[in-house]
Amino acid sequence: SEFGNLFNGLERFPFPFLCISGGQQLMSANLDIWPDVLIGGTGQRKIEQEGCDIRHSAEEGEGEMGSVFSQIVNGELPSFRIQENERFLAFLDIRPVRPGHTLIVPKEEVDHFFDLDEELLQEILIFAKPVSQALKKVTGCERVAAVVAGFDVPHAHLHLIPAFSMSDLDLRQGNSTNPDALRDMAGKIRQAL
Fold first, then answer.
1. Which residues pair with 73 in a beta bridge?
2. Per-residue H/E/C for 120-139
3. Tens digits of pLDDT across the chain (193 residues)
4. Is pTM beyond 0.90 here?
5. How open is the CA angle 46-47-51, to the nearest 5 degrees?
6. Collapsing DSSP states into helix, strand and coil, what is residue 105?
7. Which of 42, 80, 111, 187 ranks highest by number of CB atoms within 10 Å?
8. 20: closest CA among 62, 61, 68?
9. Contact (CB, 8 A) for 109 and 164
10. Which H or E element spans position 71?
11. How far is CA 74 from CA 4, 38, 86, 107, 163, in A?
């Protein structure tokens, strides 16, 4: 197959599909789909699996597909949501570096975190505060780290990572996690809010 080992283990998950466009692999796929999601680039490739159809094609007159996070915000892709208001959404990272690793995204799609207007920059921290308190309560971590990196998805976002040491903050150490474990963790965090 053109996609080689990408389909290994796909049968384990209830809603497997890939989103591929241009062949750029997303290291920290922040979707509730497995295996890793592929996004970016131009042109079109379409994968249909288990009744799912995710498409990106400027040639079809659809324009550019929003970021993966915009698709999650809009309900076009599933996620393990923690908290939401009119401006932000918090959901679990499906490749957490630690259990409870949560992403806070503004609903407005802006690529670079520090390009957010001053009001959004202030509000994202205020929105994140009760989520971080719930994470600390649920995970028993020493600290909840707030990390801005921005290399994985071109949509501003804040990582909230339950941490016991600096080594817990290496985003390259994220691992795919069982959807049942993520669902359970999301429920515990929501309950602690």
1. none
2. HHHHHHHHHHHHHHHHHHHH
3. 333 333 333 333 333 333 322 333 333 333 333 333 333 332 222 323 232 333 332 233 344 568 999 999 999 999 999 999 999 999 999 999 999 999 999 999 999 999 999 999 999 999 999 999 999 999 999 999 999 998 889 999 999 999 999 999 999 999 999 999 999 999 999 999 9
4. no
5. 120
6. strand
7. 80
8. 68
9. no
10. helix 68-73
11. 31, 19, 12, 9, 30
Q: Are 122 and 76 in contact (CB under 8 A)?
A: no
Under 8 Å between Cβ of 3 and 37: no
Q: Measured between alpha carbons, how far apart are the two ends of the chain, in Å?
A: 45
With CA atoms as reference, report the closest residue to 24 among 150, 175, 153, 193: 153
The token duo for 153 is: 């998805």
The label of the residue with tokens 């509730």 reads: 32
Angle, nearest 10°, between helix axes 118-139 and 179-192? 100
CA atoms within 13 A on the CB side of 56: 19
